[in-house]
């Protein structure tokens, strides 16, 4: 019975945005838009989905859970503090066990870059909810949906991704697909936090970013991924690389502010701007449910 359940899944997992063609991205956005508008889809049989979060998460974890419940899926919540991984069990063995007891898809967030390469022997779809500094494909899709709702098209838009790019799986997932969709991507922030991005994308100052961007995509400073030795002043960072009220005043009338959250208020963005008229931060969170419903339907239909 369980084998039959597994065989019936399509194995259309999602680990990186690079594995999606432009047409597949647009199809997922179309499906997400239909879910956001109230469309309903339920699997024909009882299906279990396991959520394995090895890193802290609020938005992504609960967004997946709401999406799963709206699709009528049974949710298996993995508790890393009381699981066999505390006894030394590998990620593969944990995932293989959940597959064997009937999970039809695995949603995984893990601190290790590209952890999914270790799971290639599994038969069930793997949906990447974030891997280290590598990829965050469902965040990318919800960002794309938010931009599409605002501008209808990506072609010709100038998107500036600003902040801690070197440690950002959001930036890594978004930059290439936005370019493939026809947008112009630039980067801003401390040059020592640009990583490989300046090899491909133009680096602009934060004042230039504010003046030029249709979409100003701010990123969180990921202190947990730094070595902990660098001196860091919140006030100095905010003045040099943050979106201050003065910079927001430079932005064009139609431009919008995005941030994957959680937001460090008065560091990346002035606190008063988090919910300002041009901010789409909570819209992004809302879109996460519809996008994850679309990704789960693609994996299980």
UniProtKB/TrEMBL annotation:
Entry function: Catalyzes the condensation of carbamoyl phosphate and aspartate to form carbamoyl aspartate and inorganic phosphate, the committed step in the de novo pyrimidine nucleotide biosynthesis pathway.
Gene name in the database record: pyrB
Stretches assigned to the Aspartate/ornithine carbamoyltransferase Asp/Orn-binding domain: 156-297
Keywords from the named record: Pyrimidine biosynthesis, Transferase
Pfam families named in the record: OTCace, OTCace_N
EC number assigned by the record: 2.1.3.2
Cited InterPro entries: Asp/Orn_carbamoyltranf_P-bd (IPR006132), Asp/Orn_carbamoylTrfase (IPR006130), Asp/Orn_carbamoylTrfase_sf (IPR036901), Asp_carbamoyltransf (IPR002082), Asp_carbamoyltransf_Asp/Orn-bd (IPR006131)
Binding site for L-aspartate: 87, 169, 220
Residue sites binding carbamoyl phosphate per the record: 59-60, 109, 136, 139, 261-262
Protein name, UniProt field: Aspartate carbamoyltransferase
Catalytic activity: carbamoyl phosphate + L-aspartate = N-carbamoyl-L-aspartate + phosphate + H(+)
Family affiliation: Belongs to the aspartate/ornithine carbamoyltransferase superfamily. ATCase family.
Pathway: Pyrimidine metabolism; UMP biosynthesis via de novo pathway; (S)-dihydroorotate from bicarbonate: step 2/3
């Amino acid at each position: 019975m369980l084998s039959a359940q597994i065989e019936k899944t399509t194995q259309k997992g999602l680990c990186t945005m690079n594995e999606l063609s432009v047409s597949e991205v647009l199809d997922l956005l179309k499906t997400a838009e239909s879910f956001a508008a109230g469309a309903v889809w339920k699997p024909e049989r009882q299906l279990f989905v396991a959520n394995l979060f090895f890193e802290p998460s609020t938005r992504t974890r609960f967004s997946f859970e709401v999406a799963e419940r709206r699709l009528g899926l049974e949710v298996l919540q993995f508790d890393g503090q009381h699981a066999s991984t505390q006894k030394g069990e590998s990620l593969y063995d944990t995932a293989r066990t959940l597959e064997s007891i009937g999970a039809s898809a695995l949603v995984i967030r893990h601190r290790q870059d590209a952890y999914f390469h270790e799971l290639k022997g599994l038969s069930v779809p793997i949906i990447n909810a974030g891997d280290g500094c590598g990829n965050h494909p469902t965040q990318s899709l919800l960002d794309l949906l938010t931009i599409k709702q605002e501008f209808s098209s990506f072609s010709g838009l100038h998107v500036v991704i600003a902040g801690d790019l070197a440690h950002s799986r959001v930036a890594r997932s978004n930059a290439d697909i936005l370019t493939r969709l026809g947008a112009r991507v630039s980067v801003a922030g401390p040059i020592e936090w640009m990583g490989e991005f300046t090899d491909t994308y133009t680096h602009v100052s934060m004042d230039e970013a504010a003046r030029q961007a249709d979409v100003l995509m701010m990123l969180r400073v990921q202190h947990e991924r730094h070595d902990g030795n660098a001196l860091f002043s919140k006030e100095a960072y905010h003045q040099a690389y943050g979106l201050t009220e003065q910079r927001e005043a430079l932005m064009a009338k139609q431009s919008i502010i995005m941030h994957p959250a959680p937001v460090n208020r008065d560091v990346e963005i002035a606190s008063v701007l988090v919910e300002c008229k041009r901010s789409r931060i909570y819209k992004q969170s809302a879109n996460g449910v519809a996008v994850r419903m679309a990704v789960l339907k693609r994996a299980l239909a």
